[in-house]
């Protein structure tokens, strides 16, 4: 099972939250609620609790497992705790997507078709659109499809559209001193504009690949420039002093 979430903000500060639930083929349910919001906090904790409660209740009532939830980027920005709550509390993979298509990969094949703007869609259409996009990002094993882009660039977390955690979640797992040291070195890398690249023969597999996914994910949240390439080619790298390093990965 999959779900799509959207929130519509109005000038009267009466916002509407919508959840569309579907399987791989059909739209099965639609949940909607209106709530009061403020300019300082357009998406209150009430909205986050409503989403968590409704998804948990739906799964328990119908004995179904919701594996993924997609939402528009403005929903994730307005509800910064939503993605980590979905992952931590319900074991649901949250995906933050743009409105029309994911980097053009799922655009209509009809050359003459003009897609409607995201703002012109009603809130139920927006939620259903997010749910359909969520289905397309999962493979037959009910896990997000592994993406390898141009020149073998491993697009971790579906090019970072999967948002499992935020920096505050990582901060809670270590001591204050460790977190301070981590941010010190991250700031140094960004200040000196250091770029780091990993090379391997495959983007999946055992412990090395799993740890590298986690490291690149953490680097993305810190804002450091770490990339990972997977290819069965002979790589020739030239260092700053003119020496050439060759490695078969």
Could you describe the 3D structure shown?
By secondary structure, the chain is of the alpha/beta class. The protein folds into two domains: 2-136, Nucleotidyltransferase, domain 5, CATH 3.30.420; 147-248, no CATH class. 36% of the residues lie in helices and 25% in strands. It is built from eight helices and eleven strands. The protein has helices spanning 45-62, 73-78, 82-90, 123-136, 156-160, 167-171, 176-191, 207-222, and strands at residues 2-8, 14-22, 27-36, 68-72, 93-97, 147-148, 154-155, 195-200, 225-230, 234-238, 244-248. Strands 3-2-1-4-5 form a five-stranded mixed beta sheet. It has a two-stranded antiparallel sheet with strand order 6-7. It has a two-stranded parallel ribbon with strand order 8-9. A hairpin with a 5-residue loop joins strand 10 (234-238) and strand 11. Helix 1 (45-62) runs parallel beside helix 3 (82-90). It is globular. The two termini are 38 Å apart. 22% of the residues are buried.
């Amino acid at each position: 099972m999959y779900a799509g979430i959207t929130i519509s903000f109005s000038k009267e500060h009466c916002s509407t939250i919508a959840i569309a639930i579907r399987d791989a083929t059909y739209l099965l349910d639609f949940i909607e609620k209106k709530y009061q919001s403020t300019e300082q906090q357009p998406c209150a904790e009430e909205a986050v609790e409503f989403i968590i409660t409704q998804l948990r209740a739906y799964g328990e009532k119908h004995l179904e497992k919701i594996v993924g939830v997609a939402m528009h980027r403005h929903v994730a920005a307005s509800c910064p705790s939503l993605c980590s709550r979905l992952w931590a509390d319900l074991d649901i993979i949250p995906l933050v997507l743009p409105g029309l298509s994911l980097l053009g990969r799922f655009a209509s094949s009809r050359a003459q078709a003009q897609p409607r703007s995201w703002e012109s869609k009603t809130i139920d259409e927006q939620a259903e659109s997010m749910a359909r996009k969520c289905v397309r990002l999962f493979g037959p094993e009910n896990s997000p499809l592994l993406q390898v882009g141009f020149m073998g660039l491993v697009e971790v977390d579906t090019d970072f559209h999967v948002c499992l955690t935020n920096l505050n979640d990582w901060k809670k797992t270590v001591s204050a001193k460790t977190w301070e040291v981590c941010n010190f070195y991250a700031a140094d890398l960004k200040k000196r504009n250091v770029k780091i690249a990993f090379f391997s023969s495959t983007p999946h597999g055992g412990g090395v690949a799993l740890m590298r996914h986690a490291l690149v994910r953490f680097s993305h949240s810190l804002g450091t420039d770490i990339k990972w390439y997977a290819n069965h080619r002979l790589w020739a790298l030239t260092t700053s002093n003119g020496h050439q390093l060759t490695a078969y990965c």
